[in-house]
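Action item from last week, closing it out:
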Amino acid sequence: MSTTRVATLADLKPLVGEPLGTSSWIEVPQERISTFADATDDHQWIHVDPERARAESPFGGPIAHGYLTLALIIPMWAEVLTVDSVTMAVNYGLNKVRFTSPVPAGGRVRLNAALKEIEDLPKGGVQLTVDGRIELEGAERPAVVAEPVYRFFE
């Protein structure tokens, strides 16, 4: 794990175009996949029926929902960047997201992030655009490529 820590929002500006860090690995066990299926009412068999997924799926077993993998960006992002002066941060959205590799049940993922852009907001604070790659352990391609947007306030 590698983390960027800065004191203030102003300290982020020189980091545009630079890597921010890499989170620790998070395992995605079948139990978490099933819990996500219950929370979202997405019970497609490729996620929740391990026997059928092993027998019929082109993935060789059950896989995590793409949106579950994307949602894990939240705890991983918290490990990648700390701004000491921030009193509130919000997820503002995504400019893009692609699910480029399936995450098998039991697989491990981590976030690798770089600061793409920073903009001052009219009423204070900044908007960060991040180049994010959710890497899948042992895979050549990332599981998710995303461009999340966050707003930070001091």
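Closing note: The chain has a mean pLDDT of 97.
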